[in-house]
Amino acid sequence: MKFFAKTATAAAMLAVAGAASLSLTGQASAGFDICKKVHITVQNNTGGPIQLFDLDYRDFGSNRWRSENTPNRVIRNGGSFSVTRNLEGVNNAKTYVRVQFRKLKSNGKWDHSKYWYADSGTSICSRGQSYRIVFR
């Protein structure tokens, strides 16, 4: 009876150790799939100020959108905004950047009921890659 208890305990410990090693391997390999120091520039040519509120990029390898945190930023007409980010999951892979923004309502307040977006061109992401987005 003791033999079976020891064997079951050993098997459980081995399973836990194996699962832990797999999760660590996944985290380590994900660290190598980061497209570093990506430059993203947004140009506002809409005719009025806009409020930039979201920055996403497409991960074609896993067929999903990934998001980058960005504070709400007002960009005047004719103005631009640039940011440098590390994009996970897309190093040496095809991607593009999408930026979402709001416009002012006639009462001078931001319209939270709708939003607009614009995409960069698609390219292979590599260290120092630049993506430019123009709002029209």
UniProtKB/TrEMBL annotation:
Keyword set includes Signal: yes
Secretion signal span: 1-30
Domain of life: Bacteria
Keywords from the named record: Signal
Identification of the protein by name: Uncharacterized protein
